């Protein structure tokens, strides 16, 4: 059996910079892995099967893990089946790249199980055709992403700072969020370079001051629960930001907040939202902070 870790991600910055003729959107972003993760187990079997601990998730062509298996079929030798099981911890359609993390973990796991000898760069190229966040999830860590997210530059790793995640029980699908962008002509410019500079300096305060996300202006006003959660987090003194297209908010915790019981504090304030406390992580499946 092969076991892989599919770490989630947050976006320390995300600027939508335009829409391409093929319908994809160009972005400028800083990806960051987090320790909250799914676990993917791959076992040799007579035929292919895919199962998931979350029974609401489809285990067919709609699942990126299934597409990862199909993408590597041409590289295998012989008729070798596999059973893939996803132990799901990352919330679905939450802006944390749960599906992409699983997809990348399957690519890495099958590469090991079938002894394909593909490099991480090769796996990332294959992943580009499966989902925009998949290449980053293959590598993990801290990276500056451009294009549709596939043009990646590694940044110096950040310390394992604690991260508060507040996930309302609401699904925001990325294609719907981008549709909101296509209807607007007054998009605010965001400086991603300020975030890149703060990351390179490992400057916590500058990073908090610089984090930003185009989707904040697009998605948050559409949902009363997001407006309220943003207000609660701001009133509590946190520079909370939407991750990806949401609906999850994240807040990097400064040292003075490290020992607070965040689940208890925000479990009451944030109503039905799920509260997670995690850390920044390397995220490539080889090492991460619990």
Order of helices and strands: EEEHEHHHEEEHHHEHHEEHE
The amount of beta strand, in percent, is 25-35%
CATH architecture of the largest domain, by name, is 2-Layer Sandwich
CATH class of the largest domain: Alpha Beta
Number of separate domains = 2
Average pLDDT, rounded to a whole number, is 91
- Sheet having the most strands: 7 strands, mixed
Give an overview of the whole structure.
This protein is of the alpha+beta class and 290 residues long. It has two domains: 2-154, Ribosomal Protein S5, domain 2 (2-Layer Sandwich); 162-279, Alpha-Beta Plaits, CATH 3.30.70. The chain is built from ten helices and eleven strands. It has helices at 64-72, 98-113, 120-128, 134-139, 174-182, 192-201, 204-210, 214-219, 224-235, 262-269; strands at residues 2-19, 25-45, 49-52, 81-87, 142-146, 151-154, 162-167, 212-213, 241-242, 249-252, 274-279. Strands 1, 2, 3, 4, 5, 6 and 8 form a seven-stranded mixed beta sheet that branches. Strand 9 (241-242) and strand 10 form a beta hairpin. Helix 6 packs antiparallel against helix 7 (204-210). It is globular. The two termini are 22 Å apart. The model is unreliable at 286-290 (pLDDT under 50). It holds the Pfam family GHMP_kinases_N. GO terms for molecular function: 4-(cytidine 5'-diphospho)-2-C-methyl-D-erythritol kinase activity; ATP binding.
